[in-house]
Amino acid sequence: MKDSELEAFIIASRDKHTRSDDTFTNNVMDKITSIEIISPVVRMMSTNKKESFFMKLSHLPKFAIIAIAVGSLVVLSSTAYAAYKLLWEKPEVSLSQPETSASGRDEVSLLFSQCGKDEMPAKYELKKGAPIKPEQIGAVVAAQCELKAINDWAMATYAQGKDGFFGDARTHEIPMVSLARKIKTINSSSVTFAELQGYGYPEETFDISKDVRYIASGQEVDRGTFKANDIVAYVALSKTVQTPKEQCKTDACRTFGEYRGVNRIVAIVKLDKPLQDYDQRAWQSLTELSPCMGNPSEYCLGGYSGAIDVYMGNPRNSSSQSGDRSTTKQIEGTVEAIEGTIFTIKATSGAVYTIKAPKDIIREFNANKSANYNNEKIGIGSTLSIRYLEDKDTHTTTINGDMIEYISFKIEILKKGDPIKPY
Amino acid sequence: MMNENECIAAILNGDAEQYRQLVGRYQSGLIIHCENITKNRHDGEDLAQDAFIKAFENLKQFSSEKAAFSTWLYRIATNLCIDFMRRNKRKVVLTSIEERLVAVESSYEEVEMVEYVRDALKRLEPPKYASVLKAYFWEGRSYEAIAKEYSTSTNTVGTWIRRAKHQLKEKLS
Fold first, then answer.
1. Per DSSP, what are the bridge partners of residue A238?
2. pLDDT, tens digit, for every residue of A132-176?
3. Confidence class of residue A67 from pLDDT cuts 50, 70 and 90?
4. Does the beta carbon of B86 lie under 8 angstroms from any beta carbon of chain A?
């Protein structure tokens, strides 16, 4: 038995009652709950119901609706004409001019978008201290729109499974779209990407097979179209294949299987914009705002926004009271007043919601948890997010304790590892 | 206590706190796995932590019908470790990593063998060997932490673990 096999068995034999390193676990849980990450799971927890295109229109002035209607006709007709030869629809976004948001930040509204299969958020806010200027927001959003369209195409084209992560138990295959890279050299057999400064990505060289697809403006083109200094993203397949035990030739393989890993580039896509527009740090400078789940006339924060858990209620408590008609809703706003267990928040529309918490959660947070989060305390002006259960057809601005599923304290983060700052 | 799939379902349903169970269960193995690849305990801990966070971020994409959570988690960690090694221009021995990965993935399925190991651990002499193996492999403690507890050097802890593994291997053969 090899050392690696023995060690694996020792680890697997771990008794479930064994104590584990609480510091490590707490670090992971803190990072998850304080969301120094972009988390689809957490987005789902505090996420906002997707607003339809026409719902978005209802928030806009009439002249904008007319402009979009005319623009859409042009887009639709040109798409119909070009669809037979494009691999994906031309990614497009149209944004309003920057304005000052309710929170005092620079904000733009999405007027129109065509960025792959999902809708984009309704608004983007520039974070305080962000490294980009308000006039750059449009270019950054447009660049992300383009990457999203490419990613959707790559997943639809190369992912074997529905989730895009696994093939089957024996073959794992993950299509991945790279960050924007600059080509250093390219020829018929290899491509070298220049070092990506600021990310720690060194210069990288990949073999190119004759099956690699070269794409520019959504269309397949010849390799000759690509040259040094072009800004591109590549699609790579990271594939791992396990030899079935019955085909093994060694005992080790028969006992434990044998894996063979392959990484290969399957497509290189020329990008339309300068490298800095695709910079992830520029993208992380923006906070997304979308209509709140169940409260579509209010906006809630999403995307690269963070939150610290303040209170986790038990959703089952209230579901029995509300019956099958209850649905999860979300509201976010700044704290206006605190009186013991009761506090009020002002949402983006100006509506005031009264929260009747089951206990003094704000005092408890400030006394017990705040020290873990840069001593930031909840007070007047703090932004809180409340997820609660309510009958689908009812709307109340008083949220009682038994309705509350989850309360979080919104924070603003520019990059992982930054000290916690309240939103 | 929930089983693994119930736990994952609860997390996806909004109960993030349940992730603590999964972190507790796999942290020691994952740290050792990353430490083995990077040859550095601190890097191993950081990467294992990143892997747990990345797994949480992508939990919606996990399908228990296609692979065990441990398989998926170790794959994520392995990819992070390989990226880390490449970023730091350090040599990556893929065959050795794959060998370890295969061993880990299979070990969680070989229930009978796991029982043999548990039994053999009880029979190690001196019993301190079993304690040290458990501290390192089960509790996820570093050589430094174990050395401190036993008031000895990390080299001695390394020797104990090597001898304990040798004895364990003999008992299992």
1. A174, A263
2. 999 999 899 999 899 888 988 888 888 765 443 444 446 666 677
3. very low
4. yes
Which amino acid is present at A341?
Answer: T
Q: Which of residues 131-170 of B touch A (CB under 8 A)?
A: 133-134, 137-141, 165, 168-169
Range from A142-151, A242-251, B4-13 carrying the lowest mean pLDDT: A242-251
Please write the tens of the pLDDT for every residue from A360-392: 999 999 998 888 888 899 999 999 999 888 887
Q: Residue B98: what pLDDT?
A: 67
Closest approach of chain A CAs to the CA of B151, in angstroms? 20
For residue B27, which residues of chain A lie inside 8 Å, CB to CB? 20-21, 24-25, 28
* Interface touch A1/B169, C-beta < 8 Å: yes
Write phi, then psi, for A37 (nearest 5 degrees): -135, 165
Residue A243 to chain B, least CA–CA distance (Å): 11
Whether residue A185 is predicted with pLDDT greater than 90 in this model: the reply is yes
Q: DSSP readout, A55-112?
A: HHHTTS-HHHHHHHHHHHHHHHHHHHHHTTT-SSPPPEEEEPPPEE-TTSSEEEEEEE
Q: Which of residues 20-59 of B touch A (CB under 8 A)?
A: 20, 23-25, 27-29, 31-32, 36, 45, 48-49, 52-53, 56-59
Q: What pLDDT was estimated at residue A254? A: 61
CB contact under 8 A, A16 and B25: yes
Q: Contacts of residue B49 in chain A, CB cutoff 8 Å?
A: 24, 27-28, 31
Distance CA A188, CA A214 (A): 12
Put simply, the answer to whether A161 touches B63 (Cβ < 8 Å) is yes
* β A231-243/A258-270 pair status: antiparallel
Counting beta carbons within 10 angstroms of the beta carbon of residue B164, is it exposed (0 to 12), middle (13 to 18) or buried (19 or more)? buried
Residue appearing with tokens 């887009």: A75
C-alpha span between B97 and B87 (Å, rounded): 17
Both tokens assigned to B1: 């206590």
Phi, psi of A298 (to 5 degrees): -110, 155
Contacts with A37 from chain B: Cβ below 8 Å: 53, 56-57
- Could you report the per-residue pLDDT of A23-66, keeping only the tens digit for each? 888 888 877 765 433 333 333 333 232 322 323 333 333 333 33
Q: What is the DSSP letter of A250?
A: S
A255, B63: Cβ pair inside 8 Å?
Answer: no
Strands (E), A166-275: 171-177, 181-186, 190-193, 204-207, 213-216, 219-221, 231-243, 258-270
Are A397 and A386 in contact, with CB atoms under 8 Å apart? no
Q: What is the mean pLDDT of chain A?
A: 77
Question: The pTM is what?
Answer: 0.54
DSSP per position, A356-413: E-SS-HHHHIIIIIGGGTTT----TT-EEEEEEEEETT---SEE-GGGEEEEEEEEE-
Chain B CB contacts of A407 under 8 Å are none
Displacement of CA B59 from its chain's centroid (Å): 19
Q: Which among A41, A172, A195 is the top mutation candidate for probing chain B, defined by the most B β-carbons within 10 Å of its own β-carbon?
A: A41
Question: Is the ipTM reported for this complex over the cut 0.85?
Answer: no
Mean pLDDT of A186-192: 93
